[in-house]
Request: fold
Amino acid sequence: METIFALSTPPGKGGVAVIRISGPGAGAAIEKLSGREPGAPRQAVLRRLRDPATGAWLDEALVLFFKSPASFTGEDVAELHVHGGRAVVEAVLGALTRLPGLAPAERGAFTRRAFENGRLDLTEVEGLADLIDAETAGQREQALRQMTGALKEKAEDWRARLIAMSAYVEADIDFGEEEGDVGAGLGASILPGLGALKSEIEAVLADGYRGELVRRGLEIAIVGPPNAGKSSLLNWLCGREAAIVSEEAGTTRDVIEARMELAGLPVTMADTAGLREAENAVEAEGVRRALARAETADFRIVMAAVNPEGHEILGSFEEATPDDVCVLNKSDYLDSAPEQVPVAGLCGREFLPISVKKGQGLEELAALIEQKVRCLAPSMDNPVISRERHRIALQECVAGLAGAERWLAEDDVVLGGEELRQALRALGRLTGRVDVEELLDVVFRDFCIGK
Reply:
């Protein structure tokens, strides 16, 4: 096995840079750079590093050594904590490059070795990748649960139960036809347990795709007629001037996005072009994009507005769905109380009266939006399916269990056993217990060099 090395901290100037070495030659590399053995495992020691080829002084570094298998990769691992200047890092990496038996690591190479050596399963690897990419508290919490085995533990429990039930079916296949043998009828005996296992996995699948939402983030589209105040609302929600605000109708021609964090989750707020009969091709394209964005959003803020005279409502809630948040902007122009406003076009829908210009009702709107976002967040009590790959594997497992139920109920243990094997293979793909070489290439290419 080749010994690999890479910079594990982000490139650029910093106080400290960490260079990681993994493989059978990690200890020897430290000895060649410092002139001394690595020292006791897991104890930091200060060493002067020199280039073995020239004897040139490279840096003063803290050196850590982790003895196999008690390391991240399961191999001998060394870490060089050097000063974070670019010249220092390049000099140390250059010296390592010239050592025989060492090679620069590819993307995700350290984590791949951890997987291949049984230190992580595939769901934990993906959790680690998500933790590195996490931008919000919700993403961090979900990634930590997965990285520490929440989904793995549940999958291993399902797998153990399925193996035990499969053993009964195999016994029925092998011995069931022998008169008086204990194997007879064992296949049918697992039906209650099989149904319970299928129901348990189906309950996990019925999560409304909440884990995927946390991982990729939510999207909220602000839709309504021109001059309803959509851009002003976007600017208030994100706390900056993300969109141009003008009294002239149709100022927003394209979709304007702003990223923010709500309830610990990443949210993209999309301000769309005003919905009306377009006056030219550019505006028509803006309306088309607005409608497309509204269609794919997780939910919408549907805006109507009161005209300055207070006698007419601009826009409508006619096409609003129960999941939408309906707001009536410029409500400070109303001649009467909001509940008495003529509701032609509002379709009897409940709405929140606001005035973005005067700041009225905005805190209530923000609380309502956050409440809806929280409803889409995953439960802390369940292992979270955070990727389409997880969902497909579990759906295939359920299909195998359903097929096994059907065949075993008809006393066909041969076909029932084959369906159980299909279900087991699907669970194996979830955790990486089966041959998933092509899948691994996809997973690990998303890691940075040094991880």
In short: The chain has three domains: 3-117, 150-207+383-432, 217-376. The chain has a mean pLDDT of 83. The longest strand covers residues 57-66. Residues 150-207+383-432 form a domain with the Four Helix Bundle (Hemerythrin (Met), subunit A) fold (CATH 1.20.120.430).
